[in-house]
Amino acid sequence: MPGNKTDAIDVRNAVKRYGDFTALKRISLTIKDNEFFTLLGPSGCGKTTLLRMIAGFEDVTEGEILLYGDEIESLPPHQRPVNTVFQNYALFPHLTILDNVAFGLEMRGKSKAAARKRAGEMLELVQLSQFAARKPSQLSGGQQQRVALARALAPQPKVLLLDEPLSALDLKLRKAMQLELKHLQRETGITFIFVTHDQEEALTMSDRIAVMSAGEMQQLGTPTEIYEQPRNMFVADFIGETNLLEVSVDQVMNGRALCHLGGGHALTCNSVEGIGEGAKVHMSVRPERLFMSDVPVETESLKGRVAENIFVGTDISTLVDLAEGPQFIVRTSNSDRGNKRIFEPGSEIFVNMELGAGRLLMD
Amino acid sequence: MAHVNDNIKAYKGFRSVTLLCLVVLYAPLVIVTIYSFNASQSITNWEGISLRWYADVFTGPESEKFKVAAFNSFTIAIIAATCSTAIATLAATAMVRGGNFKLRTVSFGLISLPLMVPEIVTAVATLIFFNSIGFTRGYMTILVAHIAFCIPFAYLPISARMQGIEDSFEQAAMDLYATRRQAFTKILMPLMAPGIISGFLLAFIVSLDDFIITNFVKGAGIETLPTAIFGSVKQGIKPNIMAISTMLLSVSIVMVTISYFVSKSDNTK
Predict the structure, then answer these.
(1) I want to staple A257 with a disulfide (CB 3.0 to 4.6 A). Which of A56, A160, A271, B84 is the partner?
(2) What residues does A325 pair with on adjacent strands?
(3) Which of B175, B185, B266 to mutate to test the interface with A (most CBs of A within 10 A)?
(4) Which pLDDT score is estimated for A3?
(5) Closest Cα in chain A to B268
(6) Taking a C-beta distance cutoff of 8 angstroms, is the pair B148, B217 a contact?
(7) Class of residue A140 by CB neighbours under 10 A (exposed 0-12, middle 13-18, buried 19+)
(8) How far apart are CA B178 and CA B165, in angstroms?
């Protein structure tokens, strides 16, 4: 089947086996042109393997990988118009910063002078022109990171692959680099495929995210979809903080599902295709979609007692023990302190759920 | 926790044991060096400073023999070091970059075993080998033997160096459109250079001063410096031997110094 010329990467039924171990179990996904796409998952989930298969460092056991419509899975790395930013940057230690950035251009047949001129422009783009003559070891981690980025972008690859490039940086620098990467992607118009295990990073930067676990894709969607409509337990649990409640579905009608959890507490949420009446499943409720009150305010007010308040900067997390039920985490914005939505430990209160806040999960 | 004094200088007798070791190791070298400048015919009586024995090495009755021997020694050392370094570089590339292939441990053992085998055994075995294939003994037999026994010496610093080079450098090069060969010549070779130079120098020194194997496999009428010196000493030690030894010693010191500084210049960091 011929590929679509406008899709940056088309992975079709890709399988990767190492002997008896299957690292990737038949993954199919399409990455659009000019997209900031993230492969997100815990270590060992296969995300880096998939990236290295696109780069050409791992062969594909079964399946196809298409780059703008052309099959590339059998090409050696140097014949693929994709470049990689490595986790440890892999800057050539014996070359200057300028020659590092010029390397790919020279290998593509540009004259030394032309390659260096373009490399100089790339260094300007990442604001490192004054370091052109230095060696990589004389630069800080953040600067090396930007050199690696300039080096990979200089030959104008069709797709840029980033293998956890920010994991070695401290928090502040990482936040700044996240924005810089996002801007760079928009400026250059190059498709970025970003690998990370940091869900916050993925939500901040990506146009779309593929959540992976144990060699399988768990969910593919925009950050909002992934966060608000997790498909299964793994995604709900891996992305952000959540209350996972064991519920029984009593009735499904008009797109709503009536459920109850231990202790007889009733909850209503949007129904999910494939989960019918009588099903015993999990429901995910984000802590920030819950609020507390001293009198019941909604139909799904659940009676409980405040166990503990935990101050986490912008928010306060409150642990609430339901009468004969599970413990809830309720997250209240600090700015709501004045509205009496925060209660002292020991207070008898009601936990209220916004309509549509609960999400039923496949296992 | 009680403070443990792990400063080795605090042990009793540290100073005297150290001095004893240094004297045993270096006193003979120092004495040979000093007496090579002796003006006297005798090797034990000091009669003042002179360079006459150095002049004797180059112009004296034995000078012709030493010149030929020196020529043999240096050409053999250079060729043997070059060949064994090339082979050792390829071996190290295969061992370090070849993944976890079968017989990897065995291969490593095979490469480094000659270092542990008593030299006399290697010498006898090499001699028998040359005889059994009907190889006439001479310059070529010495050269082939030297290439063979220099390989493990060249291999060790090269593979140690290579283990310190992450393979992501080559991957990055290939990712940036370099072919496998370009990645090797433009990235891996320059990074390995200090190891390769160390390996070459070590092989050179080992070849230059080898006596036992050379003595077994050399034919009649061909000498290297060590065998020539041994031949002269059998007829009584003359001060000119000390002059030659001192010159050989300085060649070694220069090589070791270069090797030290080269390996210190770590360009992978």
Answers:
(1) A271
(2) none
(3) B175
(4) 67
(5) A93
(6) no
(7) exposed
(8) 18
Q: What are phi and psi of A296, to 5 degrees?
A: -65, 135
**Most B-contacting residue of A54, A86, A100, A108 (CB-CB within 10 A), to test interface:** A86
Closest chain A residue to the Cα of B166, Cα to Cα: A90
Model pTM score: 0.80
Name the interface residues of B facing A (CB cutoff 8 Å).
166, 168-169, 171-180, 182, 186-187, 190-191, 267-269
Nearest CA to A239 among A280, A204, A267, A187? A204
Q: Which DSSP state fits A190? A: -
**What confidence score (pLDDT) does residue B5 get?**
61
- What A324-327 contacts at long range (C-beta under 8 Å, 24+ apart), as own/partner pairs, is A324/A262, A324/A263, A324/A264, A325/A261, A325/A262, A325/A263, A325/A265, A326/A243, A326/A245, A326/A246, A326/A261, A326/A262
Task: Note whether B179 contacts A94, CB cutoff 8 Å.
Answer: no
Q: Name the one residue in this structure whose structure tokens are 């429901």.
A: A283
CB-nearest to B177 from A57, A107, A137 is A107
Task: Find, in chain A, the residue whose alpha carbon is nearest to that of B192.
Answer: A94
Show the tokens assigned to B265.
């210049």
Q: How far apart are CA A75 and CA A67, in angstroms?
A: 11
**The dihedral formed by the CA atoms of B189, B191, B192 and B195, expressed in degrees to the nearest 10:** 150
Cα nearest neighbour of A57 on chain B: B171
| DSSP secondary structure letters along A283-294 | EEE-GGGEEEES
Residue A94 corresponds to which tokens in the numbers above?
Answer: 């014996």
**How crowded is residue A229: how many other Cβ atoms within 10 Å of its Cβ?**
17
Which helix H or strand E contains B78, and what residues bound it?
Answer: helix B63-97
HSE, CB side, 13 Å, CA atoms: give it for residue A311.
5
The distance of A51 to chain B (nearest Cα, Å) reads 12
Instruction: Give me the residues paired with residue B226 across strands.
Output: none
φ, ψ of residue B45 to 5 degrees: the values are -90, 130
Q: The tokens 């004495």 sit on which residue?
A: B31
Condensed to tens digits (0 to 9), the pLDDT of residues A123-165 reads 998 889 999 999 999 998 889 999 999 999 999 999 999 999 8
Distance from CA of B256 to the nearest CA of A (A): 24
- The conformation of residue B183, written as its DSSP 8-state character, comes to I
Place of tokens 């310059």: B139
CA distance A193 to A11: 13
B1 falls in which pLDDT band (50, 70, 90)? very low
A284's tokens: 């995910």
Amino acid (1-letter code) at residue A347: S
| Inter-CA distances, A4 with A37, A173, A220, B260, Å | 18, 38, 19, 59
